[in-house]
């Protein structure tokens, strides 16, 4: 690697006259090509998505509505009855031990859909509250790494405590706490992993995170089947304790983002982090890092002027119309995607098929969706991809309303709808990273994820209502994702663009794009 200080005099003189290099270019210069060691750390970091997936979809099994049968002691009992609650006590029984589900252990089936859906809704409400209260901390006070570790630790501790819940009210409260802690796991893991590698590997590392999410999702039916006749509490223990061990491992192995350190003016910490990454990549570390000093000098004033307040990043986006417009459009599209993404796995019980197989099919759909996401991000515009995928997801979900219950065609339509939604989910997250600069990126991606979660908050109640009429689940899901996905048309295309570091840099790019478009229109008129 060649440093500016060792360049020829004329070249150095011209460099001083030129604009200071961007953080992206400076870091890329010093870390060199991403080596196997650093790539391993980035993928290890992305594995946080596996534990995230387990907590998101764990209620599919722990809160499942179990099957029941008549005991034969009462002639009034009929298997055709929709609800056993009106039957005499002792005339019916659960097919499996009562402790296999919270619904049977605490007799929630007869309490109505509101109480049955309360724990799942509480979890998503906790994700929503945590996202809005914690989302700016990773951009301001704590940074990416500390925020991720705090989220993982709090999520796992809440999960362990959930296993000892004495009743549904404590259970719902602990699910809220788990959701609150979990709210920043995916965001910080995605942003930090992409900021620790070079441009060439960003899409790959992002897809690795989505693939790890699939691994976590896929582990649930296997774990639930293993404990199918045991207490639901075992599932919480076996998903939460490994997560706590994983967070300790990350503390010792993963570095903070050098981008965030430079934007925050901590240039000495940033240089030390870049040294560590460069050594892992096999590069020499004898240079003076003058390019990073230049970047830090350029951004220190902006950081000091912006203040260190927790909500400074939100204010920065609120004051700029282009940022607010982007945020509103992508959050609106994300709401519809989140409703289907979180709602479909909860709704598999309404398909009339085997629960373990249905969830497994949904989880397996995430693997090809990760591959398709990687292919689309490299070859097709983000905006067009989101619009097309949400339209397909909406059509397939609406088809589930008219296809007879229990048929293979209905399951196929549901899985295909979930597949398209998963792909749209992945692309939206990567899209949001590219739409916003480093100074507000974690906050912006966090808000986009909260819009996804907000859709998930409404899903459990819709699923409970859908047990009576499928339009309230599949129908509403299809209309929401299909119509709201059209808001992506309001967003600028980011494929092939370099990521900005400050709001001012992004504004310059926006103005240059507008000027270029205007010039093209004028040339077309002249022709």
UniProtKB/TrEMBL annotation:
Residues 499-527 are annotated as: Disordered. It comes from the Eukaryota. The chain crosses the membrane at residues 114-135, 147-164, 204-223, 235-254, 327-344, 356-377, 384-404, 416-435, 447-465, 471-491. Signal peptide: none annotated. It is a multi-pass membrane protein. One of its GO terms (molecular function) is symporter activity. Pfam families: MFS_1. Belongs to the major facilitator superfamily. Phosphate:H(+) symporter (TC 2.A.1.9) family. PANTHER family: SOLUTE CARRIER FAMILY 22 MEMBER. This is Major facilitator superfamily (MFS) profile domain-containing protein. The lineage of its organism: Eukaryota, Viridiplantae, Streptophyta, Embryophyta, Tracheophyta.
